[in-house]
Amino acid sequence: MQRRVIFRGTLLPCLLVAPQLAVTLVFFFWPAGQAFWQSLHREDPFGLSSRFVGLDNFAAVLADPDYADAILRTLVFSVAVTALVLAPSLLLAVMADRVVKAAAAYKTVLLLPYAVAPAVAGVLWLFLFYPNVGLLGLALTALGVEWNYFLNGAQAMALVVIASAWKQISYNFLFFLAGLQSIPKALLEAAAIDGANARRRFWTIVFPLLSPTAFFLIVVDIVYAFFDTFAVIRSVTRGGPGKATEILVYKVYYDGWEAQDLNASAAQSVILMAIVVALTALQFRYVERRVHY
Amino acid sequence: MRVSRIFLAAAALALAATPACFAEGAPIEIQWWHAMTSVNGELVNEMAGEFNRAQSDYKVVPVYKGGYADTMQAAIAAFRAGNPPAIVQIFEVGTATMMAAKGAVKPVFQLMAEAGEPFDPHLYLPAIAGYYSTSDGKMLSLPFNSSTAILYYNKDAFAKAGLDPAVPPKTWPELFADARKIRAAGYACGFTSSWISWIQVEQFSAWHNLPLGTKANGMDGADTVLDFNNPVLARHIANLAEAQQDKTFDYGGRTIEPDQKFVSGECGMTLNSSGFFGLAKAGAKFPFGVGELPYYPDVKGAPQNSIIGGASLWVMAGKKPDEYKGVARFLTFLSQTPQQVRFHEATGYLPITQAAYEAARDGGFYKEHPGTELPILQMTAKPPTENSRGLRFGNLVQIRDVIAEELEGAFAGKESAQQALDNAVKRGNAVLSQFEAATK
User: Fold this and answer.
1) Domain over B2-147+308-362 is classified CATH 3.40.190.10
2) Which of A169, B126, B208, B314 is the most exposed place for a label (fewest CB within 10 A)?
3) What are the start and end residues of each CATH 3.40.190.10 domain in chain B?
4) Do B439 and A260 touch (CB under 8 A)?
5) Where does residue A260 fall: left (phi above 0), alpha (psi -120 to 50 degrees), or beta otherwise?
């Protein structure tokens, strides 16, 4: 027996949906529309003159070898961040799930990084790893590592990957923990009675049952690595040295804001939007099918 | 003594002005966006405060907007959004961009004329005023904090390395030799450099009478192209890259990040803006001295003269005439000798008027503080040539990033110095032509 609420007329439903629609229109569709418009025009930095140039901006962006490099860099970066987020957060979740004493305290502490603003997280890591000044920077130098991410692109990349991953681990941890706690205890007990050890129970029961959660998190983490890592990169390396940490979203910012080329930046935003839409669609279509429910 | 007297006078004026304040209601607010931090930022606030206390019609509100590039971008964004600040501090590399933005700025000479404020561009030091004026001598923005690049050295480090703390190195070969000794004396790094492109490429070129680009570095026309990939600069960058290997030279970032490497005592020497003087004095726990920029003695004509950096104040378009009156009065106030002398003496930025320079000299400041006159002497040592009058390239902010990126490649050993410069010229010219296309 199901009870269904049915609205009569159209006014009330419209009113109820309106605030959400308004927010979406103002904060998503309007800027996206502006990006489209700007990507088809050429303007001076102050917006004093503007003319229609068709797809010239897109052609210029796609012909730019820097852009191709940035695409490759972004792929490396997002795969690294996603891997570095998923594995530790799963481990932490499994551990935290077993803890009986002071479980809430552990969970709270593990969730703290999520409350830290990305820019602040960036600065935190910057202080830790600052060559010859930061605690860990000094330690690395003492260990004989030539630590200078102002010049070494690989080190800079490693640093922004770690800083970005650290921020996202809490979020993943929370979902994994919830996933673990929703696994019926009866299944695990039955397996234990059948003689499966903890390791086998994890890989044959827990892990497959967690796969929907893991899949969801992979999508979320990749989108995070694509977009939300901007503040970390901005505060730690500013895309440098050279262009070693300039990922697509940073390039959008750099070209539009620092280099004052709004049109090239808008064209890149539109491309980025298309990439992410395609990526998400692809993932949901093909990866989700193999996910074990 | 002098400062406290000014303060008392200002306080007295403020007291006198209080009743008027109540009578006329709220003063007109004038937003002043700037990029000054620490000692320099405090002075900005003090000067605005003094102006506000001295009269009651206007209230100047200084707002710190981040680094130079951030401040400029914020002003442009605010202009696009229809609400720019009245006054904005724009660094010298943004000059060409601001000059091209005809409808977005109010030229200072025009502002002063309309507001009926007395204004004589000839009172300003020509080397500085020329930078911010059109070719027919009309001043577009008011010089505010002008600096040039000089050498700073840690006297303790010199003593430990067995060098004479009274004698800074004069040439690049001497500097590299001294840096190696400092390194051998146990310092983590011999020397570093802030503002890598400005000092090691732009200042270096002017100081060695080498061009950065055609058309007198863009001062004679916007159709300029970069051509600084010459053998002298390539040799210098190669020397820096080689010195990076054993930390005789240690690169520390593109703008002000390396400041800390000197102040903390990590590096024995640094090349930095003369505007760093006050910050170094406040931060360093060791005695330090200053010297002229080093040069290569085998380069003909070197040393020439160094060029200016720092920033000027631009007035944005689209404000009400009343507000412009206040802006004009404030700019007049800032140009007065006492303000100028005070800013110059406290920060190490150059005096920008002839009168301020003379007042500082006659007041005995340079005798009391050895080395503080050096930047101005270095900048005016010889009459400027085509290569040392200044720079005016569109999108120079971005070109600097391109140069820094390529230098980083050279310092990391990823490409040769010559390759780095060739790439920087090629990529820089792409930026220039993009600017020309956008402002046509």
Assistant:
1) yes
2) B126
3) 2-147+308-362, 149-306+385-439
4) no
5) left
